[in-house]
Fold each of these.
Amino acid sequence: MHKTYIKIWGARGALATPGRGTVGVGGNTSCLEVRCGRDLVILDAGTGIEPLGQHLERQGQPIRATILFSHFHLDHTVGLPFFRPLRNKKNHIVLAGPKLTMGSFRQAITFPFRPPSFPVTLATFPARMQYRTISLRPFQIGRIRVVPFLLHHPGGSFGYRLNFPHGRSIVYATDNEPKSAAHARKLTRWMAGADLLIHDGQYTPKEYASRKGWGHSPYPFPIETAAAAGVPRVLLCHHSPSHNDRAMKKFLREAQRYIRWHDLKVRCELAVEGQSIRI
Ligand SMILES: [Zn+2]
Ligand SMILES: [Zn+2]
């Protein structure tokens, strides 16, 4: 029996956006829980990792988890020192991510969390912590096979395809912007046949026209890439902080119209905080 699911704890891009206008889709930044039996992978440590930490702590068991980072922009890392399981020495947390800068992965992830920008360093937390540098070679987290891919984003970002032992797979690709036909073809091959794509879809095409080079995608890009790769379901994520729930509803209707108009065989939804999906 494989109990495999994902749960979204944060899907906002750039900046946490709390308030009455965003309670529907949620205001926390990128954080996804992936469970496959006993294996726990957390994709990115945006502000959504704080409520996830509370949830894990309430279960009262020692925690073994890998936090896998796409890149080091603050909306994907800022929640890390607020992840409560780091405060318990019985827990074992692996921090894994790419080397995208001059220094090591460890230097990049620990850099913001020290005085004067943060009161303490990560080394002061009692949990057992390990640092693991990811290259573009596939690797294993427990029974999950992880296939990394380089995305197009200022400073770089890694996307991850997670292949589960029961034959299903998901792709997490944020932050990413269309680059070239050749890169789009490589992306398509990398995600071919996956069951679910969770992809940056921050802008409408109209918004994107004035935001090229900012590192994010207009919704047609993930939709078309998924259709070309035979992925039946897309969750758009990295929602713009300037889109409240009303704007997001309109955004989704527009994306769905695009699918109908182009007769694409894809189901498109918004990644919504609190949502679980059985894989
Ligand atoms: Zn981001
Ligand atoms: Zn980024």
Amino acid sequence: MKTPKILIGEGNKVLRAKSEKAGIKKAKEILVEMRRVLKKQEALGLAAPQIGENYRVVMCSIDGRFTAMINPEIMSFSLDTEIKEEGCLSLPDEWGNVERAYSIELEYTNEEEERVKVYLEGWNARVVQHELDHLEGILFTDRMKKKKGILSL
Ligand SMILES: [Zn+2]
């Protein structure tokens, strides 16, 4: 089987679309493909739209281990925020500072079809927020503090 291609570019229509809820069967198929991609890439996470599937499925590195999340939902964001530099496999030449909630409460369905609730902070929370943005068609450059060209006063 071929490794799926990663979609690239701020203007890509699939990357910019809102993704729909995934049934468990479809989610599992997508996760097989996503794991294949992640074996070959250095990344902390991947969202299904990045491999051309507009479904609500992501893989996020949590404490250094990839965790599959189906139909994830952030239930609350901390008021505390943190600014850190991010990159994205779909924007290979871009890096930039993004402000995000320091911690979140998250719900998702795991591969055993259980609904799981977790509290995440720091990089774990950041990776999840970045990947869930992909499900809304949002890229990290949309949230960058200083985007090229809009700095002049
Ligand atoms: Zn990304």
